[in-house]
Amino acid sequence: MTDTDFPYLVADRLAALPHVHAVALGGSRAQGTHTPDSDWDFALYYRGTFDPEHLRGIGWPGEVCELGAWGGGVFNGGAWLTIEDRHVDVHYRDLDAVEHEIDRGEQGRFHWEPLMFHLAGIPSYLVVAELALGQTLRGTLPRPGFPAALRSAAHTMWRDRAVRTLRYAEGAHVARGHATEFGGAVAVAALESAHAVLAARGEWVTNEKRLLERAGLREIDEIRTELRGDPAALARTLTAVEAVLVGAMRCAVRDGNNRESPYAADE
């Protein structure tokens, strides 16, 4: 079976399940940034309730999780499957909950959630981003823009988290020479800053895989290679990291026409 036909085969089977209203292709396959080895990401949008037992009943090999098994937040479960010799992820999406996040985003409202494999956590508007970037295969789904109110609110929240993360790392780890803890904090702050940069530009984010590249923060890699358990060296690293974030924030504020960052005020 060709890659052209494959997503429609999966979508047809998912769309036939009880209470499923729409099916979308997401991730790199939907955005055209995939490689031959990339997984296939599908979201099934249901209303009211969804019973994973119906998905198991199709007979595709793999692991099918219960609703809420992935933390109980906006990512409320899914499955890892093998279909036609391809690795497939299926995400459960409560359409009522997703539409609620669309409405909240229009008002500049959202919340932060922890999620495994995401160092900086995720914003609740991630499920809105999936709609904006995905390809609807079956049913009808909205394709929201990035509201101005959300751009401002998200930029501010992520910027402030990055500032606080670095300030904590400075106070808790630099003087003690805790290179591992400090390095972890730098990684988190870089990803938080990347979220802030892309929010200011009005660019949707669905995961962290290419987040630093998109935000122009890949330079952090070179800075972190200098980490060692010496307070003076960690202090120099902190200064270098902040300099990179200053540049990224300055560009985001200018390009996104957002309000000025406190980093820029420190120049």
Can you give a write-up of this model?
There is one protein chain. The protein has 267 residues and is α+β, with helices and mostly antiparallel strands. It has two domains: 6-138, Beta Polymerase, domain 2, CATH 3.30.460; 148-265, no CATH class. Helix content is 49%, strand content 17%. The chain has helices at residues 6-15, 27-31, 52-56, 95-106, 126-133, 148-174, 179-201, 211-215, 220-224, 231-256, 262-265; strands spanning 20-26, 40-46, 62-64, 78-83, 86-94, 112-115, 118-123, 135-138. A hairpin with a 2-residue loop joins β4 (78-83) and β5. The longest helix is centred in the middle third of the chain and has 27 residues, at 148-174. Pfam families: NTP_transf_2. This is Nucleotidyltransferase domain-containing protein.
CATH topology of the largest domain: Beta Polymerase, domain 2
Parts with pLDDT < 50 across at least 5 consecutive residues: 258-267
Shape: elongated
Placed side by side, the strands forming the largest sheet appear as 3-4-5-2-1-8
Number of domains: 2
Strand content: 15-25%
Total helices: the number is: 11
Helix and strand run = HEHEHEEEHEEHEHHHHHH
The helix content is 40-55%
CATH class placement of the largest domain: Alpha Beta
Taking Cα atoms only, what radius of gyration do you get, to the nearest Å? 20 Å
Q: Report mean pLDDT, rounded to a whole number.
A: 91
CATH architecture call of the largest domain: 2-Layer Sandwich
For the termini, the CA-CA separation is 57 Å
Could you give the count of β-strands? 8
**Structural class, please?**
alpha+beta
Largest sheet data: 6 strands, mixed
